[in-house]
Amino acid sequence: MQQLLEDIRIAWRSIRSNTLRSILTLLIISFGIMALVGILTAMDTAIYSLSDNLSSLGANTFSIRPKWQNLHGRRRGVQVKRGQAITFDQAIQFQKKYQGKATISLTFPCSNNAIIGYKQKKTNPNVPITAIDQYYLVVGDRKLEFGRNFTSQEVQEGAFKALIGKDLLTQLFEGKAQKALGQNISIGNQKYKVIGILESRGSSMNRNEDLQVFIPLLTGKRFYGSTKANYNILGKVKSPENMEEAIAEATGLFRKIRKLKATQENDFEIRKSDSLLATIKEDTVKFRLSAIAIGLITLLGAAIGLMNIMLVSVTERTREIGIRKALGASKKAIRIQFLTEAVLLCQMGGLLGIVLGILIGWAVAALLHGVFLIPWGWILLAVTLAFIVGILSGLYPALKASRLDPIEALRYE
After folding, report:
1. In which residue ranges of the chain is pLDDT below 50?
2. pTM beyond cutoff 0.70
3. Cα distance between residue 400 and residue 318, in whole Å
4. Is 190 helix (H, G, I), strand (E, B) or coil?
5. Beta-bridge mates of residue 36
6. Pseudo-torsion of CA 26, 32, 34, 35, nearest 10°?
7. Burial zone of 178 (CB within 10 Å; 0-12 exposed, 13-18 middle, 19+ buried)
């Protein structure tokens, strides 16, 4: 242990004697580690945020949406075509005929860039407006913190009522629910009475779940609907064990509603929330591998730079090596000295890269309003890679230094 500490002290003096070159090499190593840890941490944060929101729906929910079809083009490649939109009549018909077998909710995305106003206050033009029915809060696992839900009469009549998220409560009403309930907010030229405030839910991917306004389904259809509008169908069965049977029945019913012939394929798809999450995680594997490749390529450049510095260090310290050998230092001691120096430099760069990578992950979590998790697995990977790079980069210079002839080394000027 004492010998190891002595080797570390000698390595530290050598690093300090070549400050500029050491800093440049350290930065190259840190950027490689930062790319590795930062990208992977950011991806994990985004996936965890999405997973948290999807898992809140549970394993007993499913959604119906138009299917993306692959069509072979005449000249090259594959063209992608989306199935026909789910119309309002189709969605209502499915809900009425299937409602006893599962709880069915219908939603319609009205706008993603609305401006919400209250008296003299206005939000940025980035607030999503979604039209929902009275079943959405149950099926979508959204809970009210204050106020009440829409009634079936308000949904069917297209009432001018609204449910708002916690971020809007903060922006327009200073975070005070008693100030918001019963007040009228403006969306465009229309006034909506606030009747409920939703519990905070954070973010999923790049969508802030707390910066939303919900209005009754028929109200959204009246002001934002069109012949090409697509209505989302979300279902919730009583038990996950009934999911496959429920999906099979829903498929048969919706084929009849879409008037598909027996020989025609489905132009829609039914997806479970847990299968959607599994698909997303599977798709991110390629991105993870790409991030690792970027980090390794950067570390390869850093390894070459570090080896060059170590070779220069061996040349500059030839006389010092000769003196140590003349005083009885073995080849092993010389090798360990230079390997320690390379590993120490790499670990310093790795530590800086880990800190920068964690900061990137934290920034992504803050932007997504998600939960930040310390990436212990990626930190361990980064430390291991930094150690390996140090060994590989310092091995040849260390062998070269240990093989120097002490007499020739002492003559070196």
Report:
1. 55, 69-75, 79
2. no
3. 10
4. strand
5. none
6. 160
7. exposed
